[in-house]
């Protein structure tokens, strides 16, 4: 089982093609290519965390059919264009994977859960136009050749990033935090 992260797919969003200069001829081609790229790297037991703006418009049947086409187990966080999400939804997802605490939200944050312990913050929304701070990374498809990003790839990316601004853990333990 592997964790993957992605954001800003904007399925069915005609205007995203021109706004973001996406290399697709039409929305159907983009929708199909996003599904194809997900399915090229995600296995049936893997988890994909979608950090918002999954789908611009679409009725329940469209969303259900799209979800069925995507290999893996999918967690959807609400973004600024996820009007298709009704009722209960989450905006933040937190988990510790291989000892690394990760916070995922559609929006980039200045500080986040355990940021002073060098936790990672993965986000979308900015389509690669916002400089990251510390251990932060834009997992949006526009920044990642329209593929979800694996935990292992993010681990390599984070190794080269500066520590979080508030990372001063000398002499402290997590128990001190409580």
How would you describe the overall organization of this protein?
- This protein has 178 residues and is an alpha/beta fold.
- The protein has a single domain (3-177), classed as 4-Layer Sandwich (Purple Acid Phosphatase, chain A, domain 2), CATH 3.60.21.
- The protein has helices at residues 14-19, 27-41, 60-69, 151-159, 174-177, and strands spanning 3-6, 47-50, 73-76, 92-97, 100-105, 120-123, 136-138, 149-150.
- The strands form two sheets. A four-stranded mixed β-sheet has the order 3-2-1-8. A four-stranded mixed β-sheet has the order 4-5-6-7, with helices on one face.
- Strand 2, helix 3 (60-69) and strand 3 form a beta-alpha-beta unit.
- The longest helix has 15 residues, at 27-41.
- The protein is globular, with a radius of gyration of 17 Å.
- The two termini are 32 Å apart.
- Supply the helix-strand structural class: alpha/beta
Instruction: Quote the average pLDDT.
Output: 92
The biggest beta sheet is recorded as: 4 strands, mixed
Counting structural domains, the number is 1
Tell me the name of the CATH homologous superfamily. Answer: Metallo-dependent phosphatases
Shape: globular
Straight-line distance between termini = 32 Å
CATH top level assignment? Alpha Beta
Uncertain regions: pLDDT < 50 for 5+ in a row?
A: none
CATH architecture descriptor text = 4-Layer Sandwich
Number of strands: 8
Give the strand order, joined by hyphens, for the main sheet: 3-2-1-8
CATH topology: Purple Acid Phosphatase, chain A, domain 2
| Strand coverage percent | 15-25%
